[in-house]
Amino acid sequence: MFKNIKSKIILISVITGLVLIGSLSFLYLSSINDIQTIIEQESNISEIIPRVNEIYLQARTSIIIIIALFIFIAILISGFLSRYVICPKNKFIRGDEKTELKDKLNEVSSKKNQIETILLHMTDGIIAFNMEGDIILINPAAKKFLSISPEDNTFEDIFAKFKLDINMEKVIYLENWTSTEQRIQVEERYVKVLFAPFKNEDDRPDGVIAVIQDITEHVNLDNMQKELVADVSHELKTPITSIMGYADTLLEGGYDAQTQEKFLNVIASESRRMARLVTDLLTLSRYDSNKKKTQKESFDLGNLVKRCQEKLAIEIKKKGHKVNCFVTADVPLVYADKDDIERVVLNILTNSIKYTADNGEIKIYVGFVYNDAYIKIFDNGIGIPEDDLSRIFERFYRVDKARTREMGGTGLGLSIAKEILDKNGGSIDIKSKVGEGTEVVIRIPTKQ
User: Are 382 and 423 within 8 A, CB to CB?
Assistant: First the structure.
C-alpha cells in the first residue's frame, strides 16, 4: 500500500515541478519577446524604459507567485507524506520492534519455564551456589535427598553437617587436584554428590553446582551381593566340613560295617544338600540373567496339582498327613510355563509336609477368579512368626535356621518360586500364625 502511495506522490511532484518550470520558462520567454517588441516599435528611450519596468514588475510578480505556489504545494506534499506515509511507517517500525522484543521475551520466558519444569521433575537433585556460597537454584529432589530445611541457605549450611572434606574453594580452584565426588548417608538413604564449578561469559568462575544422585538401591544391591557370597560360603562350608571329617575318619579304617554305613549316609546326605544348593543357585542365576526362557503353554492346573500330590505321596505317607485336593468346576486352562509352575507347587507342598507335625492336615483348593486361576494350600503346621513374613522371599532367609538345615532346606525355595511366578505373570502371597498353620495363595494368569 505504501509503495503505491509513494509512487503517486512522486509522480504528482514531478508533474507539478515540470508544470511550474514550464510556466517559468514560458513567462521568461514571453517577457523577453515583449521587451524585444517594444524596442522594435519604440525609438524613444524615455518611453521604452517605463514599459520595460512594467514588464519586469509583472514577470517578477508572476515568478514570486509561482515560487510561492511551489512552496505551498511542497509543504502540502511534505505534510501529507509526514502524516500518512512516514509516521505510519515509523509506527509500523516501532510496532515491529516491540513485537520482536515481545517475541524474544516470550522465548526467554518459555525457556525459563522449560528449565524449571525439567528441574522440578528431575529424579536427580540439583543445587547451584554463587561465589558467596548462597543458593541461587535448587530443585525438590535435592531438598528430599539431603533433608534440607528452610534455614539451610548456603553451601556450609547444607554440607557442613555431613563433615565432608570439601569446600567451594577446593571445587573452584583445585578442580583438577581434588576429588569432587562424595558419598553421603542421610538417615537410611545413600546419595552421591558431584561438585563442579560453572563459569561466566568471560570464562571466570561464577559459582558451584552440586548434582545429587540417589544410590540407595545400588548400595543395597551391593550389600545383598556381599551377603549372598557370605551365605553361599557358609552354606557350602558346613557340608564340606562334614564330608571331609567323615571321609578322613573312614580312611583311618578300623570301623565296623554299621559305623561305616552311618558315616557314608552322612556323606551322601551332605553331598545331596550341596547339590541342591548349587542347583538352586544356578536356577536363580539363570532367572537373574534372563537366560532361562519361559516356554508358555495352556494346561489344566487341577491335573498338575494332583500330579504333584502323587509325586509326594511317599513323603505324605511317612508323616501320616491327611491331604485333600478340591478343584472348582470349570477352571479355565492357565497360560504359563508348565514345568516352572510344577516346581513351584512341589516346593510349597514340600514345605507344608515338612513343617507340619505328624498326622497333620493339608488342604488344597484350585479355583478361578477374574482372569486368574489360583491354588490355595492350607496346613496346620508350626506356622511363621509375623515379623518374618516380610522377609521369607529373601534369598537364604530362614525362620529357624537350625531346623531348616536339619530338614535339608537351602533357604532359596521361596525365592525361586517368586522369581518363577513373576516371570509367568503370576503372584504368591503367604499368611501364617505361629502354632496354627500357614495359608499360601498362588495366582496364575489364564489368558495369553
Answer: no
Cell of 269: 546326605
Listing DSSP states for 128-173 in one string gives: EE-TTSBEEEE-HHHHHHHT--TT--BHHHHHGGGT-S--HHHHHH
Placement of cell 478343584 in the chain: 327
Cα–Cα distance measured from residue 270 to residue 245, given in angstroms and rounded to the nearest whole number: 12
Residue 349 CA to residue 343 CA, distance in Å, equals 10
Q: pLDDT per residue over 79-98, tens digit each? A: 666 666 566 655 555 656 67
Are 207 and 130 in contact by the 8 Å Cβ rule? The answer is: yes
How far is the C-alpha of 307 from the C-alpha of 346, rounded, in Å? 10
Q: Per-residue pLDDT tens for 406-421? A: 555 567 788 888 888 8
Using CA atoms, how far apart are residues 392 and 382, in angstroms rounded to an integer? 15
Is the pLDDT at 212 greater than 70, yes or no? yes
pLDDT of residue 88: 60
Which residues, 6 or more positions from 435, have their beta carbon under 8 angstroms from its beta carbon?
382, 383
> How many other CB atoms are found less than 10 A from the CB of residue 235?
19
Supply the DSSP string of 99-117, one letter for each residue.
HHHHHHHHHHHHHHHHHHH
- Tell me how far apart the alpha carbons of residues 106 and 122 are, in angstroms, rounded to a whole number: 24
Closest to 325 in 3D by CA, of 380, 366, 277, 276: 366
Distance CA 345, CA 424 (A): 14
Sign of CA dihedral 246, 250, 254, 260: positive
Question: pLDDT at residue 379 above 80?
Answer: yes
Cα separation, 152 vs 67, whole angstroms: 83
Grid cell in block for residue 360: 497333620
43 in Cβ contact with 22 (< 8 Å): no
* CA distances in angstroms from 78 to 104, 129, 168, listed in the order given: 36, 60, 67
pLDDT reported for residue 443: 92
Q: What is the amino acid identity at position 387? A: D
Give per-residue burial for 46-71: e unless 16+ CB within 10 Å, then b.
eeeeebbeebeeebeebeeebeeebe
